Amino acid sequence: MAVRRRAARDRGQATVEFALALPLVALVVLGILQVVVVARDQLAVEVAARDAARAAAVAGTPATAARRAAEQATTLRPLSIVTRASGTTVTVSVSYSNPTDVAMIGAAIGDIVVTASVTMAREPP
Question: Considering the entire predicted model, what is its pTM?
Fold first, then answer.
């Protein structure tokens, strides 16, 4: 008889525990999603920098070629592209301000700037 009475008293306990844990689980899942979005954008910026440096290394006007190649390599906008050419090398730095817009997480951490810089040897055009 004591077992039956206790089971009746504990009815709904799992539901209450689930309701208390759900916001924390949701916050962790949204945090993981934001990390994945930032990692995806970091990879896209690295690809854009690599393509821009390659285009700048073989072009007569490195800055113009770098901008065109970087913008064709990714759909992220606006990109900040800085090209520095010396006699033997060209360095292209690409940065993008990632608007952290995942619910609840984005407002807490603010925008993240992802950057990549690639240096290549210049080749004759």
Answer: 0.82
